[in-house]
């Protein structure tokens, strides 16, 4: 068995066990394999082992690998520059990192040109970290309101990147906060806002994230091993 196959089985087992513990259905958790720095060959192997969705954080990497990787849904999970939207608008299934209105306007414009609706998640910087992108919790409602005229964007949920803590228990509070906001927005039934996906949890903290209500986890290292940024 290859290490990729073994790692995927392992992650799936951990999803299963975590769900069992708290009475959630494992099938409700979408696993996104994060493939930044991972070459097409290894991505294709993961797809052969049942991975259906992959996450990249750089537009350039999507462009580079796009033709060599098929039968998979691409998710843009990293910071997106407005001038790069045009390159990925016809390639990605979902953008997880919507965090400002001019980006939303550009996505809307490009989606319209391609006659498609783009699914997005609003990125929230729950822990208020200086170094991270995303809206403050207090800005989310106003942001959703300002997006209402943008007919080619469908908000599908919220995303966050928790601070890295050796002990994932230390970030539980942030997941709790975002889940509460997710539920609060859901009942408001805003136009073109459907709170379906809560994208939170990475290799180090996905179990805690699932316990707190995540239904979309983004796992890189846990599947492909540690990343080599020098290649
Ligand atoms: C790299 C990355 C991940 C995956 O991180 P791992 O710790 O390797 O699982 C998840 N989400 C985002 C936004 C990332 O950039």
Keywords:
231 residues; alpha/beta; TIM Barrel; binds pyridoxal-5'-phosphate; Ala_racemase_N; pyridoxal phosphate; PLP-binding_barrel; Pyridoxal phosphate homeostasis protein; pyridoxal phosphate binding
Describe what you observe in this structure.
The protein is α/β, with parallel strands linked by helices and 231 residues long. The chain has one domain (3-224): TIM Barrel. The chain is built from nine helices and eight strands. It has helices at residues 3-22, 40-48, 59-65, 85-88, 101-113, 140-146, 172-188, 206-211, 221-224, and strands at residues 30-34, 53-56, 73-76, 94-98, 118-123, 153-159, 193-199, 216-219. Strands 7-6-5-4-3-2-1-8 form an eight-stranded parallel beta sheet. Pyridoxal-5'-phosphate binds next to strand 8 and helix 9. This is Pyridoxal phosphate homeostasis protein. Belongs to the pyridoxal phosphate-binding protein YggS/PROSC family. Its cofactor is pyridoxal 5'-phosphate. The modification N6-(pyridoxal phosphate)lysine is found at residue 36.
């Amino acid at each position: 068995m290859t290490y990729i196959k073994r790692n995927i089985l392992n992650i799936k087992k951990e999803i299963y066990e975590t769900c069992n513990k708290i009475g959630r259905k494992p099938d409700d958790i979408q696993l996104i394999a994060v493939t930044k720095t991972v070459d097409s060959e290894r991505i294709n192997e993961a797809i052969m082992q049942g991975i259906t969705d992959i996450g990249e954080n750089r537009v350039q990497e999507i462009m580079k690998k796009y033709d060599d990787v098929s039968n998979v849904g691409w998710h843009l999970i990293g910071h997106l520059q407005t001038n790069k939207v045009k390159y990925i608008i016809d390639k990605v299934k979902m953008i997880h990192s919507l965090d400002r209105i001019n980006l939303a306007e550009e996505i809307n414009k490009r989606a319209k040109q391609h006659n498609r609706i783009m699914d997005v998640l609003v990125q929230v910087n729950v822990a208020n970290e200086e170094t991270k992108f995303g809206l403050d919790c207090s800005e989310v409602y106003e942001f959703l309101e300002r997006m209402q005229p943008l007919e080619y964007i469908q908000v599908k949920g919220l995303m966050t990147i928790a601070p890295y803590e050796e002990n994932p228990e230390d970030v539980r509070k942030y997941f709790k906060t975002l889940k509460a906001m997710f539920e609060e927005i859901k009942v408001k039934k805003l136009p073109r806002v459907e709170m379906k996906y809560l994208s939170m949890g990475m290799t180090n903290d996905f179990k805690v994230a699932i316990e707190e209500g995540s239904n979309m986890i983004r796992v890189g290292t846990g599947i492909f091993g540690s990343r080599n940024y020098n290649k």
